[in-house]
Sequence to fold (215 residues):
Amino acid sequence: MSKVPHSITLIPGDGIGPEITAAAVRVLAATGVAIDWDRAECNEKLIRETGESIPQTVIASLERTRVGLKGPITTPVGGGFKSVNVALRKKLDLYANVRPVHSIPNLITRFSDVKIDMVIFRENTEDLYSGLEHEVVNDVVTSLKVITRTASTRIAKAAFEFTQRTGRKKVTAIHKANILKLAMGCSSNARARWPPISRRFSTPNSSWTTLQCNW
Fold:
């Protein structure tokens, strides 16, 4: 029986990007999964030549395949064009950064005696990723930390639905509502609306301390 290949956009990027994406392609090839790679170029040289942070060929490919493997792309520090990662998230509304973290059997690490199994959901399009800033007066800059109930509810919904779908038991919302009463308070209230899954609200410092103690 012939295998129908999966169409996936491949964006090598620049710097170490081409090297690590090539390695990732070899790993995927070793699985035996049939993949039809649609290579789309996006790198610092091309961005500076065209003036486009995301070439239309990249958008067209991603809209067609709906799946992409992207290597790192240079982001200028303190000036220049905006982050390609942030631009892609906004253009394609990639609001959920989902990162599974789990122990690998027989791999010796600092935490080998503890089974680690968690999934981190991070909102990708708001907060400081809004990229809104301006110079109020000379040498005084304001960066806007934009938080909306809509985006907060959407990322909470994604996390809770994932929890239900995978049979997990608890969701911990990490916030700074102890300091940012309005912005992070809105975020925390949105998360409180969801079904009866065990939930916990925690500040970053408290969360890291708890993890260190538990590990």
Observations:
- Helices lie at 17-30, 44-50, 56-65, 84-92, 149-166, 183-191, 204-214.
- Confidence is low (pLDDT under 50) at residues 205-215.
- The first strand starts at residue 6 and ends at 11.
